[in-house]
Amino acid sequence: MRKFIKAVFIVAVIAALGAGGFWGWKKYSESRGAKVVFHTEEVKRSDVMSVINASGTVEPEELVNVGAQVSGKIMSFGKDSEGKQVDYGSRVTKGMVLARIDEVLYEAALKEADASLMQAKAGILRSEANYKQAKARLALAKRNWERAQELFPKRAMAKMEYDSCESNFLTCSADIAVASAECEQAKAQLAIAEALMVKAKRNLSYCVIASPVDGVIVDRRVSIGQTLVSNMSASSIFLIATDLKKMQVWASVNEADIGSIKKGMPVIFTVDAFPGREFSGVVHKVRLNATMSQNVVTYVVEITTDNSDGTLLPYLTANVRFIRNRRASVINVSNAALRYLPDNPALVVPDQRAEFVKGIELKKGERIVWIKEGAFLRFKIVKAGLATGNATELIDSGLKEGDIIVNAQSEASVAAKKSAKTDGRSPFMPKMPSRNRNSAKGR
Q: What pLDDT score does 438 carry?
């Protein structure tokens, strides 16, 4: 019985060892036969641009703020070019009525000014009549005084009468001056009344708010029945864009990039409202009033753009790219392809392997691209031109459009190589000890 159990145990051990050996050999064979898979790309011909990125807002090129110069209640709105009530987006022409303010108080003020003007005119007539009366009294007093001067020396007139003639002449002389002053005062009152009349008429005219320009209403800030309170600055009622066919983009540019922004520089921008479409413009002006937010200084750059088709709407957010340099229709590759480097010399073609292991010598401006040849890779030295964040221009590279180059190794193939960890040795071979951080820490 013991011999039977021993025989069964020996058979079981041999079977387990055989199964383990088969599994190990299978894994070894799989790792030996694992193939490296490469990510490739085509060499392409396209535009390469060096840009400065910024964000901004689409703004009308010229915006007119229409306000109210008198206080009062909004009674009604006018009609736009289509005969509809003035509202957002209404197209208006110069002189068109936009709104009306309650006119009752200003009509009453005009009537009061008119009455004051009539009163001032009557005062002119009265003062002129008084002046004529004073002039007549002065003439009489003058003749009496002259007669008294002739009679009194001849003792033909009493002293009292003589003194009375003298006093009357002096009084009438003073009265003529008073009457003349009253005439000037009446003229001044007339001027005041005329000025009040002009003011009252102008205030009444302000009750009708008209469009100062041809354009489109971008914003309406009041409603019918709302009371406006005018002060030193006119209350804003409407915003009118004179021409939405010409728009601007106000972009905020970091101080580190503002030195590269020049007037006339070409610009490309996109808006989220129209994905996939690019709009073009040019730099019009760099504003000098910088702003600081969280210790970051930015400048506003005005960009003009054509909007003849009316696609762009005011206040859209724009993603702006200022084009510092541009190469049109040039051979270029991705920057990832220029950064790629094989992690195993065995992947390099035999005739270049030694140079790769030694280290490829590059001159200024030269880079390396890798071309797949069967199961191997061949490097090619190229001269780099204009570089952007994604791609780099190649100058006299010998590559042509459509050539296939490597830009990365497959993550799956890398994982397979790491899982094998054989380096060409059998998994059953003992591993040589090595110094690494983990072993050092374990000591």
A: 39
Q: How far apart are CA 158 and CA 148, in angstroms?
A: 9
Beta strands in 195-294 (DSSP E): 208-210, 215-220, 227-228, 235-241, 246-254, 266-271, 279-286, 291-293
Helices 159-206 + 104-151 axis angle, to 10: 160
Classify residue 146 by burial, with Cβ atoms within 10 Å: 0-12, 13-18, 19+.
exposed
**Distances in Å between the alpha carbon of 229 and those of 39, 74, 211, 222, 235?**
70, 11, 20, 12, 7
Whether the Cβ atoms of residue 356 and residue 379 lie closer than 8 Å to each other: yes
Q: What are the angstrom distances between the C-alpha of 430 and each of 215, 316, 422, 425, 437?
A: 87, 68, 11, 9, 21
The 10s digit of each residue's pLDDT in 308-357 is 998 999 999 999 999 999 888 899 999 999 999 988 888 899 999 888 88
Give CA–CA dist 284/61, Å, rounded.
11
pLDDT in tens, 367-393: 999 998 888 899 999 999 898 888 999
Measured CA to CA in angstroms, residue 309 lies from 37, 215, 244, 305, 379 at distances of 50, 16, 10, 12, 50
Q: What is the pLDDT of residue 17?
A: 54
Q: Which residues, 6 or more positions from 197, have their beta carbon under 8 angstroms from its beta carbon?
A: 110, 113, 114, 116, 117
Q: In whole angstroms, give the CA distance from residue 34 to residue 38.
A: 13
Q: What is the pLDDT of residues 252-261, one digit of tens each?
A: 999 999 999 9
- Terminal-to-terminal C-alpha distance of the chain: 51
C-alpha 82/C-alpha 241 separation (Å) is: 18
Q: Does position 234 have pLDDT exceeding 60, yes or no?
A: no
Helix, strand, coil percentages (3-state) for the chain, rounded to 5, are: 35, 35, 30
